[in-house]
Amino acid sequence: MANMMDYLSWRGDLTVKQAPFNSIDNLILSTLSYIDFEQTGLDLSGRSNVTIKEAGEKFSLLHADEKMNLGRVIPDTVFELFDVLSRSRRFQYMKLSHYVNQVDEKAEKQFSAITVDLGDGGFCIAYRGTDDTIVGWKEDFNMCFQSPVPSQIQAVEYLHQVALVKRGKIYMGGHSKGGNLAIYAATMCNPLVRRRIRRVCSFDSPGFTQEFLQTESYQTIAARVHRIVPQSSMIGILFEHHTQYDVVSSTQIGLFQHDMFSWEVLGNEFVYVDDISSSSTTVEHTMKEFIGAMSTEERKKFVEALFYVFEETGAKTLSQLKIKDVMTILRRMSREDHDNHKVLSQALRLLLQILEEYSQQKILQQAEKRIEKMKIHPKKKQL
């Protein structure tokens, strides 16, 4: 089935003046935000006038002989997307500016964003989701006990900085954590800026606390939030969500549906299905039960213990993280009767218990399907 790359083949010759900016366009720019634009050799910070065409050509020239990758989390197809956009009539003359990319281990913050001038009097702010850095994942986990986290605060500041120097309507979006940042910034920004926001797209992004969703500020932006999750979503169902969501069909299975290149499109629309799958619903209940069973302090201790293990391996990214190193650290903690090991053991035991119940349900479902297939249905009599 077709995905956003096919969309570019079908619609890439139409400018946004000919065919208005839509949610697939927003996903494309949200995906583009995973590019490290510093590797173009161009200065895209501040009021840059560099086009996607110029940036893409320079990037390809500088890295023509390199095998580029974004780690274990983001598909390498992002680089192909960048190349296609630089040759697409719809995107190539859009201008890039205000690029920010910060990873701060001490502050436990991973934040990146890019602003794209659409060429129709509006601009789109694309917030990057979680990358391959361990500190980025630590910040994500911190969301289960801390609000706001540093990247959410900076997302608001970034929106204010851009809105101060750029006129016109504002679109916002992000994939994974990026969508969470987009919603948070749109909610917490100055009301004058919020009025300019036309649409906020959240692509398979984790949610918020109930307290946040009940604020008056969120209620004023909720109708302009477009949440999209794949049918077996595991990331986009985390925490609480107030607004309704659309469920997009994916060619992948399970957690791999987080890959935005697996999402199906037809024309200028996503291919939607009725609802998330039963397995996704079960995972949602599992995680809520797991998190709900712990106090705020217990959640904090669990996250600190988990990432203590990762940090002890010396790895800075998920790509560098080796399971054997993790197991070595856990065994050492067990011998030392380390407090972190106790916390991890208790929390993981609870999670495994819940997941075991989930597995039993899956086994029962599969057994029922096999029995149904084995049934012999009588042939219809010929008249």
Compact description:
The chain contains 14 helices and eleven strands. It is of the alpha/beta class.
Explain what this protein looks like in three dimensions.
The structure is a single chain. The protein folds into two domains: 4-277, Rossmann fold (3-Layer(aba) Sandwich); 293-368, no CATH class. The strands form two sheets. Strands 1-2-3-4-5-6-7-8-11 form a nine-stranded mixed sheet, with helices on both faces. By secondary structure, the chain is α/β, with parallel strands linked by helices. It has helices at 4-11, 23-32, 52-62, 77-86, 134-142, 150-165, 177-188, 191-194, 210-213, 216-221, 278-292, 296-312, 323-335, 339-374, and strands spanning 50-51, 95-104, 109-117, 122-127, 169-175, 197-203, 225-230, 245-248, 265-266, 269-270, 272-273. Residues 375-383 have low confidence and may be disordered. The chain starts with a helix and ends in a 9-residue tail after the last helix. The protein is 45% helix and 15% strand.
- CATH architecture field of the largest domain: 3-Layer(aba) Sandwich
Helix count equals: 14
Number of domains: 2
Task: Record the strand order, biggest sheet.
Answer: 1-2-3-4-5-6-7-8-11
Query: Structural class, please?
Result: alpha/beta
**First-to-last CA distance:** 41 Å
What is the β-strand count? 11
Mean pLDDT: 84
Order of H and E elements: HHEHHEEEHHEHHEHHEEEEEHHHH
Helical content stands at: 40-55%
Biggest sheet character: 9 strands, mixed
Strand content: 5-15%
Rg over alpha carbons? 22 Å
Which outline best applies? globular
CATH-derived topology of the largest domain = Rossmann fold
Unreliable segments of 5+ consecutive residues: 375-383
The top level CATH class name of the largest domain:
Alpha Beta
